[in-house]
Structure formats: structure tokens, C-alpha cells
Amino acid sequence: MKFSMVLGALGTLAATVSAVKVNPLPAPRKITWGSSGPIAVSELSFRTTEGNDHTRGVLIDAWQRAWGTITNLQWVPAATEAPIATYPPFPTGAGLTKRAAKSIQSVQLTVADPKVDLQHGVDESYTLDVTATAGSIKIHAHTIWGALHAFTTLQQIVISDGKGGLMVEQPVHIEDAPLYPYRGIMVDTGRNFITVPKILEQIDGMALSKLNVLHWHLDDAQSWPMHMKTYPQMTKDAFSPRETYTAADMRDVIAYARSRGVRVIPEVDMPGHSASGWQQVDPEIVACANSWWSNDVYEYHTSVEPNPGQLDIIYNKTYEVVRNVYNDLSDIFTDNWFHTGADELQPGCYNFSTHVTEWFLEDPSRTYNDLAQYWVDHAVPIFRDAGENRRIMMWEDIALSTEAAHDVPKDIVMQSWNNGLTNIQNLTARGYDVVVSSSDFLYLDCGRGGFLGNDPRYDVMSNPDASVNFNYGGNGGSWCAPYKTWQRIYDYDFTTNLTDTQAKHILGAEAPLWSEQVDDVTISSEFWPRAAALGELVWSGNRDSAGRKRTTELTQRILNFREYLVANGVMASALQPKYCLQHPHACDFYYNQTAIV
Ligand SMILES: *[C@@H]1O[C@H](CO)[C@@H](O)[C@H](O)[C@H]1NC(C)=O
Ligand SMILES: *[C@@H]1O[C@H](CO)[C@@H](O)[C@H](O)[C@H]1NC(C)=O
Ligand SMILES: *[C@@H]1O[C@H](CO)[C@@H](O)[C@H](O)[C@H]1NC(C)=O
Ligand SMILES: *[C@@H]1O[C@H](CO)[C@@H](O)[C@H](O)[C@H]1NC(C)=O
Ligand SMILES: *[C@@H]1O[C@H](CO)[C@@H](O)[C@H](O)[C@H]1NC(C)=O
Predict the structure, then answer these.
(1) pTM, 2 dp
(2) From the CB of 49, is ligand 4 less than 6 Å away?
(3) What range(s) does the Beta-hexosaminidase eukaryotic type N-terminal domain occupy (predicted)?
(4) pLDDT, tens digit, for every residue of 66-122?
(5) Domain segments of the chain as ranges
(6) Which residues does 374 contact at the CB level (< 8 Å), separation at least 6?
(7) What is the pLDDT of residues 514-529, one digit of tens each?
(8) 399 Cβ closer than 6 Å to some ligand 4 atom
(9) Would you state the CATH architecture of domain 2-176?
(10) How many whole angstroms from 592 Cα to the centroid of ligand 5?
(11) Strand duo 159-160 + 166-168: pairing
(12) Whose alpha carbon is nearest atom 10 of ligand 4?
């Protein structure tokens, strides 16, 4: 009480309260803030009813991380919604000479069903209450995974009191749960190697923004970084012996992610994008690896980018090797889901396979769609053999592209990346569960130009109008230009015009970052804070209770969160001049705060 009086005397109480309110990100589904004024937070003791050793360990580690972050950072919100005149929001110097008589001293957690495993669809909901009268913070969750989210919320709302102590606005009542069970980002370690510590850094950002799926695109045609039990020779096609992942490395990533509520879904891209690694087992299982990728005539191209190589769909031994590789990785990756690729099959590649060309000659009515169907018929049973809980995920191309198979089982999850709403509409109408990764909205690598050398299209002296001469199209010159800003990501209404039945097939969304031009140096600044905009979109949506886009409201929240990520060691990009953080909405394009509908 004394506390709020002192603040009131400083005349900054209102500013303090609204300063607190930019936190947390993602915005909870339901949050009510009181105006009784902040209360001091002492060294919090943590209590939980949970008894099982393993889950208790996960909870205690998570609590210690959250509390460690609170006390180490002594966070002062870096962007506020407070009026310019009252900034900075925190009393400094004279003022809070004494701590409040009353303070919050403990966190009490109850978990209804602590044994539930971290798998797709797990209940991630929680409630969190802070009241001065109770003297404690009460958290209730159905599973420990919901409790972890409660901690990342709490750590963002307990902030510095400006005097070396901590405080939290109160009363606070939060009821929170995600809109979608699948909220992901995709790391590509095939085009450039990403070290384990940098992967863990992405997981830190994910946990803070409540993203829960790390889709790990392990290999690609260019390299094979994973050590395999059955075929140790595959890592001869890693970029170097050091640029590899041992089984222990992969297990470390999975364990680190799990303890932060993040699932790791592995992807081995097959049968396209396959040369490195596979060719070390038997060159004959890879078609066209030694072809020139484009032949300088695009009609004869063998791959969409160098280097070429696709698994030979007709050669029997392919399936033996696929089975062994898949089983080795299934032993390491604990998630029920496994992504088996299936994007961008290039017909031109198979002109280099005698197995495939003879198969076509045997029956001239055969098409590339039949060939894709052959893959589905022979590979999917192998993928299913991993057990009854196995769920297979593929890129949409296998069901929706010129070379699509005729009949792809409906229980395979489709990751949609082309044609925005059109493909989402198509796949959900056909009954597929869909993860939205529309490249026009969610591809984080776009807009930095293409990576190919010897490219006359970049010679602006001879091609003065790049937008005309550039076959990639669009400002920023890459096939998926322009660069996707956080606002474009956040504003994506990917369920537009879907029926209720179709909308139920949307499992969530994922932002991929293809790594042709990304490695350890820039991966974090490419993902963050843009992935956090996706985090909020799929956690609590992009509209307020009146149905209005809250993009502008997100501004101060994401500006603050970017600073918070950096403070937590996640090297996120700056979004605006610091002036804008300190002068809320001074940097908006329109003064009209409802310009975005
Ligand atoms: C490939 O496998 C199939 C089915 O197992 C078998 O019928 C066929 O004879 C095999 N082909 C060759 C060339 O070994
Ligand atoms: C593949 O070979 C066939 C038969 O020789 C030819 O008609 C076709 O143009 C070739 N396709 C490509 C993409 O090279
Ligand atoms: C999906 O797209 C394919 C290919 O364009 C088309 O043949 C099919 O009719 C579409 N299905 C639906 C339900 O929209
Ligand atoms: C949604 O449907 C309406 C009515 O058919 C149509 O006018 C609108 O263009 C559609 N929106 C999108 C984004 O496709
Ligand atoms: C603000 O923008 C909204 C949406 O474009 C518009 O309806 C409204 O008239 C604008 N308000 C003012 C004061 O211009």
C-alpha cells in the first residue's frame, strides 16, 4: 500500500502500469490487469504438488531458469505504451526508499495431469493469478508443458522497480491457451551448417515466444551432416568432419528443446533434394547427381538449384537404404512426427536414370504423376513401420503440384508453401490436415536476392530495369521476394474463406528459414524477432476482442520483446530506431490508429 502511495506521489503510477502492460509476448488469450499498483516481489519460493521425479525435474529446472532470468535481467520494459511526457516509466533516484510492507513471496503451482508427454496436441493451457492479498502467485496448468508457458509469461511481467528490487503489477488474472497446437519454425542445416549452440539459441527464442515445434530440415542435396549408425560413410558428404551432428548432438538438441516445451520434428527430404550422403551408400540410388543442374536451358533443368540429385524411385535398393536411414533417425528423434520431404520433384533429373527411363518405356502411358505415386506406394509403408503413433508430414507438392501423386493418404500432414490461400483452400477441402507455411507470408529467407553466381540478371548496366529483366520478379529479386516484415507475417489471415470444417484442418503455422545464404552469423537475426510475430499470431491471434487487427498494438510489444530476446542472448534484429521504442507510435505510418483493418 505504501508502495503504491509512493508511486502515486511520484505521479508515475499510471505510466508504470501501462509500461508493464506491453508485456508479455505473445499476448495472453485473456488478461485482466488491476490498478491497485505494483507490489514488490521478494525472493520467490517455488512450490508444486507434483511428485514424479522426472516431471518435477523439468518444472524445477524451468522455474530456476525463469527466476534466474528475472533476477539477472531486472527487466525494465524497453518500449512502452506510456505517453511520451511520462517517459521513462520508472521512478529513479528519490522516491522508493522503502520496500512495500507487503510483498509476494512464493509461487504455487498445481498441475492436473503431470505425466502427459510432450507430443502434438498436448494441453498447453494455464492460469496465472497475482494478488497482493494472497501474498503468492498461483499457477494452474493441466500439464507441465502449460506450466512452462506460465513461467515464460511470469518472467516477462515481473520487472525492475528501479531501485534494485522487483515488482509486478497486480492484481493480474491470466487465462491462457494457444489457438493452434502447431507453432513452428524451420531450421535448414543442409545448405549451410548451423552449430548446436546456435540451434539452442533459436530454441531459447522459441520458448520465450511460446513456439513449440522446431522443424529440423537436417540435410539437403548439398550436404549430409548427420552421423548414421547403419551408414557411417554418409558424413563424407558433410561440409567437413567438424560440420556434423553426432547422435549425441541430436539428442542434446531434442532434450534441450523438450525441457523448454519445444518438440523437434526431423526432416529428411526425399526423394527430391537428395544427393549428398545417399550417394556414398550407393551412387545408383541417386539420379542425375552428376548432371549440370540447368543445362543453361531451363526446360532441361535437373534441379531447382545446384546441386542436382534425387532418389531413384524405381531402383529397388533405394527403399532398403531409405528404410535404414529412417529407422536410425527414428531411434534418435523422440517425436511421434517425422517429416519426409517430398517437395520439388524435377522430371528432368530422371532422364539420367536408366531404371526410370526403362520403366517409362515399359508402359508409354506412364506419367510423372505415376512415378510420384510409385514413391508414395513404396515409401509410405516404410515410414508407417515406425509404429502406430507415427504421423508423417510432407510438403504439399506430393498432393498438389504438376508432378503430384494421384492418391496420397489423407492422414499425411501437408505443409503448404505455394499460392497462399488457394492451396490452403484446396488441401483442407480435400480433407488434409495442414501446417501453413505460405512462402508469400512466412518464408523468412526471401528478398535478399538470389544466391547464384555468373548471373547476368544482376548486371544492372546491361539490364537497367531489373524488375523487367529479372525472371524472379518483384523488388528484392528472389523467387519469393520481398522480405517478409513482422507486420506482413502478423497480418496473415490464413483461414480466410475456409468453412468451419476446413478451418479445423489447420493445425497451425510454421516459418521456414532456408539457409542458402544463412549460417551461424545471421540465423538469429533472420529468425528474430519476426518469428515472434508468428508466435503471437498462432498463440492468441492478430485481432482484439472487437475483431479488429491489433498490429499497431503489437508494435510496442514486439519492440520490447526484441530487446528482451537480445538480453536473453538471442541475437534479434533491430526493427526501428530506438527513438520509436521510447516514443510510442511516433513512428507509425498513419496517425490514425485503426488504419489497419
Ligand atoms: C524389386 O522388388 C520387387 C518387389 O520386392 C520385385 O518384385 C522385383 O523383382 C525387384 N526388382 C529387381 C530388379 O530386383
Ligand atoms: C527427357 O527425355 C525425353 C526422351 O528422350 C525427352 O523427350 C524429354 O525432353 C527429356 N526431358 C527433359 C526434361 O530433359
Ligand atoms: C485442387 O487442385 C487441383 C489441381 O489444381 C484440382 O485439380 C482440384 O480440383 C482442386 N481440388 C479442390 C477441392 O479444390
Ligand atoms: C473471400 O470470399 C469472398 C466472397 O466470395 C471474395 O470476395 C474474396 O475475394 C475472398 N477473399 C480472398 C482473400 O480470397
Ligand atoms: C481511420 O481508419 C479507418 C480504417 O481505414 C477509417 O475507417 C476511419 O475513418 C479513419 N479515421 C479517421 C479519423 O480518419
Answers:
(1) 0.94
(2) no
(3) 24-157
(4) 999 999 999 998 987 764 434 334 433 333 334 444 789 999 999 999 999 999 999
(5) 2-176
(6) 313, 314
(7) 999 999 999 999 999 9
(8) no
(9) 2-Layer Sandwich (3.30)
(10) 6
(11) antiparallel
(12) 497
